[in-house]
Design goal:
Low-confidence stretches: 1-34, 37-41
Strand content: 15-25%
Strand order of the largest sheet: 5-4-7-6
Order of helices and strands: HHHEEEHEEEE
Number of helices: 4
Oligomer: single chain
Number of strands: 7
Shape: elongated
Mean pLDDT: 83
Length: 194
C-alpha cells in the first residue's frame, strides 16, 4: 500500500499539485515521456479519486491513498484516472484522512479491506503495446511494476511513449494470480509476432 501524507504548508501543497498534475494530465505524461498517452476529458467524474484529492487539498487536510480492498495494490499516482474514490476514514496524523480507492472496473466495497476475489493476470499478447499497457493499468497494476522489452532490450521508463508494436510475450502468463508488488514483463516487437 502506498500512503501519501501531506501536511499543511507550501511543501505539502507543492507535492499535492505535482501528484494531481501527473495523475490528471495527459500532458504531464507526454512532457516526461513516461508512458503512452491518451486524451482525458476536462470534467472529472463525481467519484474521481483526483476530485476527492483536490477537495482534501482545498480543505487543507492531509491525506493518504490506499487500495480499499484486501488486494494490497499500490494506487498508481501517475494514473489516477483509472481509480475511483470509495471510502475515507480518519488518518493517523491530526487533520488527515485515508482515502480508499478501487479501479473503475470494480465496485466500491462497503468497508475497508473488504475481501474480493483474487485477480488474474489478463491476456495482453497480440495486443498493441498501448492497448496492453492500459489493460494492465485498468486492472490495477502499477506502472512502476510494468517492464517493457524491445529489440534492444529493456526500455527505460522515460522512453515508453516511443514504444510501438505488438506484445508478443508476457510474464506472468495470462491467468496467473495477481501479485500486487510483482512486475509484469512485456516483450514488444514492431513486426508481427511469430
Amino acid at each position: 500500500m502506498l500512503g501519501i501524507k501531506l501536511k499543511r504548508g507550501v511543501a505539502g501543497w507543492a507535492l499535492a499539485m505535482t501528484v494531481l498534475g501527473v495523475g490528471c494530465s495527459s500532458h504531464a505524461a507526454a512532457d516526461k515521456q513516461t508512458a503512452p498517452t491518451h486524451s482525458t476529458t476536462a470534467a472529472l467524474r463525481p467519484d474521481s479519486l483526483t476530485a476527492k484529492i483536490r477537495s482534501e487539498i482545498k480543505n487543507n487536510v492531509g491525506f493518504s491513498v490506499r487500495d480499499a480492498t484486501d488486494l494490497g495494490r499500490t494506487v498508481d499516482l501517475q494514473h489516477l484516472e483509472f481509480w475511483r474514490f470509495c471510502l475515507s476514514r480518519k488518518g493517523k496524523a491530526p487533520d488527515s484522512v485515508d482515502l480508499g480507492a478501487v479501479t473503475y472496473e470494480e465496485k466500491c466495497p462497503t468497508r475497508w479491506n473488504a475481501h474480493v476475489a483474487a485477480l488474474k493476470t489478463p491476456r495482453v499478447t497480440k495486443q498493441s503495446f498501448e492497448g496492453a499497457y492500459y489493460t494492465l493499468l485498468k486492472k490495477g497494476y502499477n506502472s512502476r511494476f510494468i517492464e517493457v522489452f524491445g529489440s534492444d532490450g529493456k526500455v527505460a521508463e522515460q522512453d515508453l511513449s516511443g514504444v510501438h508494436g505488438q506484445v508478443c510475450e508476457q510474464e506472468p502468463r495470462a491467468g496467473s494470480p495477481f501479485e500486487p508488488s510483482g512486475s509484469v514483463k512485456l516483450h514488444v516487437t514492431a513486426a508481427a509476432c511469430r
